[in-house]
Specification:
By secondary structure, this protein is an alpha/beta fold. Among the domains are: 138 residues, UDP N-Acetylglucosamine Acyltransferase, domain 1 (3 Solenoid), CATH 2.160.10.10; 55 residues, no CATH class. Helices cover 15% and strands 24% of the residues. A hairpin with a 4-residue loop joins strand 27 and strand 28. Helix 2 packs antiparallel against helix 3 and helix 2 packs parallel to helix 4.
């Protein structure tokens, strides 16, 4: 890749530092600033007043809106100017005032964001966090350092997610939730501190999950959080059920719970249908 592809359009008031690599068809708007270690993939569109700094690699066809800050130094008092990175995939939409920060030596040196994500205005992703693909992070949601978020997750407005928390695939975290423990895949969570409220049935139907799979996930949820015996015994029992319980989605649910280090958010006695357990 040439340093600045001849098809790129850079507004005269924008600052592109020497060493930055700008791909084909990139558009950089007025008063935007691009640092010397930045790579912008083909087709990216930056509005006015965007700042991309640090060792930041951004893939193809990303749209970044005004006043976003991408790759600035992490908000970690232990940071000592180590050459950490921020890696962003393709086709993400990053709205106004979003802040995405690179990793630190204490967390693996990399913050990574996949493809097809939507970051709404004023949302934040902290150092050493890892997000997958096709997630929605709503307005003013704050994702702390070292958080791991899977694919097809919705994080509602004003949500706060504590350091080192994991949120599994297809989970839905309701607006205003304060999340301090892991949220398993396929689950609904809300509240301060966030509790589980059953399976994300509407989201799974929208993604064309079969009814037998949804039913198996609901039964898995009830068996895990309202069954008898210790959690290990409940997991073992669910693995011997057979039939629809042999779904890879059920196994993903069980493995996520097994691998939790922070602990799993507690399950409310009110389920996804609004009925008492």
């Amino acid at each position: 890749m040439e340093l600045i592809h001849p098809s790129a359009i850079v507004h005269p008031s924008a600052v592109v530092s020497e060493g930055a690599r700008i791909g084909a068809g990139v558009e950089i708007g007025p008063f935007s600033v691009i640092g010397p270690q930045v790579i912008l993939g083909d087709g990216c569109r930056l509005s006015s007043h965007v700042v991309v700094s640090g060792k930041t690699t951004i893939g193809k066809e990303n749209a970044i809106f005004q006043f976003a800050s991408i790759g600035a130094e992490p908000q970690d008092l232990k940071y000592r100017n180590e050459p950490s990175e921020l890696l962003i995939g393709d086709n993400n939409t990053i709205r106004e005032y979003v802040t995405l920060q690179p990793g630190t030596e204490g967390g693996g040196m990399v913050t990574s964001i996949g493809s097809g994500n939507l970051f709404m205005a004023c949302s934040h992703v902290g150092h050493d966090a890892h997000l997958g693909n096709r997630n929605i992070v709503a307005n003013s949601a704050a994702i702390s350092g070292h958080v791991q978020i899977g694919d097809f997750v919705t994080v509602g407005g004003l949500v706060g997610i504590h350091q080192f928390v994991r949120v599994g695939d297809f989970a839905f975290v309701g607006a205003g939730a304060m999340v301090n423990q892991d949220i398993p895949p396929y689950c609904l969570a809300q509240g301060d501190r966030a509790q589980l409220y059953g399976i994300n049935i509407i989201g799974l139907r929208r993604k064309e999950f079969s009814q037998p799979t949804i039913r198996a996930l609901k039964e898995t949820y009830r068996g895990l959080f309202f069954g008898s015996g210790k959690m290990k015994e409940r997991i073992q029992q669910l693995r011997t059920q057979g039939g629809d319980f042999e779904s890879p989605h059920v196994e993903k649910f069980l493995k996520f719970v097994e691998q939790s280090e922070r602990g799993i958010a507690s399950a409310s006695k009110i389920d996804d249908a609004g009925t008492s357990q």
